[in-house]
């Protein structure tokens, strides 16, 4: 009996020891993971600071934003030395080259003269036509201009502050009748994915599918945007929407032109497209919709080893005086 009790005691102690060792190993692994996460978050914040420094330094050099600037060429070379264990990748994108959702509802100022008000309304109509041409492109899969008008009217009704329904739009009566029902925004959107609540904006249209692109990646939800397009950074589909006679081949010629380092100085004026040899001389873009300056930038920072990377995405606004503001920052 004594021998049996001794064997049971030894077995119990061995089991406890094994469990203790397993707990210690698990705690050490958890500690290593936490250490790695803290290091990665520090690296991501460092990457964000580097992007802000590049944006500030570029503004000191010139007042024009293009793919030749330091913020646009900020890559992994020289960044990996910040850590001997983990890589740091930084990507900065100019959101001023995208379509600003909230700019569709331009704010009217009472102190403007009648002539200025008329000019503002004409510019707003030009912006609406730009959106219609953008939405009607075959790449997004909408069937005809009427479908594009339905989407645009839905967005405009979502943004405006009244309850007057446009021809193809919808107001609170439509949204409250859904299951489940909800209120329309009747104001600026807070984030671009909010458009998925709007009549006519389907997940297929927003995100795309195997056959068509989505419109979501070409939009921005900044509340301070005036709707002008940075001609130096706008992607192809937005460039093509600037004029009804622009073809994909012409747009590619424009992109090739602005990528040439020898044309960097020409990009200081939004009329540089007139120097592209493949563009007909009778194509004139609406200058009230054009810009060559970036005001809002998306910063994407990835830190970590190949088997354990984390990514932070944020937006930075930059004023003419160089002041910057981090609008949001999220670690995915």
Q: What does this protein structure show overall?
A:
The chain has 332 residues and is α/β, with parallel strands linked by helices. It has two domains: 2-97 and 295-331, 2-Layer Sandwich (Pantoate--beta-alanine Ligase, Chain: A,domain 2), CATH 3.30.1300.30; 102-221, Ribonucleotide Reductase Protein R1, domain 1 (Orthogonal Bundle). The protein contains seven helices and eight strands, in the order αββααααββααββββ. The chain has helices at residues 2-61, 114-135, 144-159, 172-176, 203-207, 236-240, 248-259; strands at residues 87-94, 99-100, 219-220, 229-230, 290-291, 296-305, 308-318, 324-331. A hairpin with a 5-residue loop joins strand 7 and strand 8.
How does the helix and strand content classify structurally?
alpha/beta
Gyration radius from CA atoms, angstroms: 27 Å
Oligomeric composition of the shown chains: single chain
Helix content: 25-40%
The counted number of beta strands is: 8
Q: Overall mean pLDDT score? A: 86
CATH architecture of the largest domain: 2-Layer Sandwich
Largest sheet, spatial ordering of strands: 1-6-7-8
Beta-strand content: 5-15%
Shape from CA axes? Answer: extended
End-to-end Cα distance: 61 Å
């Amino acid at each position: 009996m004594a021998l049996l009790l001794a064997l049971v005691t030894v077995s119990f102690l061995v089991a406890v020891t094994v469990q203790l060792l397993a707990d210690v190993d698990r705690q050490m692994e958890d500690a290593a993971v936490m250490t790695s996460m803290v290091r990665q978050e520090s690296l991501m914040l460092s990457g964000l600071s580097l992007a802000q420094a590049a944006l500030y330094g570029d503004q000191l050099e010139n007042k024009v934003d293009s793919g030749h600037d330091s913020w646009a060429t900020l890559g992994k070379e020289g960044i990996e030395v910040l850590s001997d264990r983990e890589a740091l990748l930084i990507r900065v994108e100019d959101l001023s080259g995208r379509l600003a959702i909230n700019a569709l509802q331009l704010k009217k100022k009472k102190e403007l003269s009648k002539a200025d008000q008329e000019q503002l309304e004409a510019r707003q109509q030009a912006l609406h036509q730009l959106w219609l041409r953008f939405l009607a492109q075959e790449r997004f899969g909408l069937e005809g201009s009427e479908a594009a008008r339905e989407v645009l009217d839905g967005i405009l009704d979502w943004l405006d502050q009244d309850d007057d329904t446009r021809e193809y739009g919808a107001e609170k009566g439509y949204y409250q009748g859904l299951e489940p029902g909800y209120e329309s925004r009747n104001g600026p959107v807070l984030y671009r994915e909010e458009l998925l609540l709007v009549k006519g904006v389907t997940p297929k249209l927003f995100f795309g599918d195997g056959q068509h692109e989505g419109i979501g990646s070409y939009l921005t939800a900044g509340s301070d945007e005036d709707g002008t397009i940075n001609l130096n950074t706008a992607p192809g589909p937005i460039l093509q929407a600037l004029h009804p006679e622009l073809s994909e081949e012409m747009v590619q010629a424009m992109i090739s032109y602005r990528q040439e380092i020898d044309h960097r100085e020409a990009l200081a004026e939004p009329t540089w497209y007139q120097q592209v040899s493949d563009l007909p001389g009778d194509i004139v873009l609406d200058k009230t919709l054009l810009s060559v300056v970036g005001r809002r930038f998306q910063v994407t920072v990835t830190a970590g080893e190949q088997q354990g990377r984390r990514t932070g995405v944020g937006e930075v606004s930059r004023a003419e005086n160089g002041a910057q503001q981090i609008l949001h920052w999220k670690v995915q």
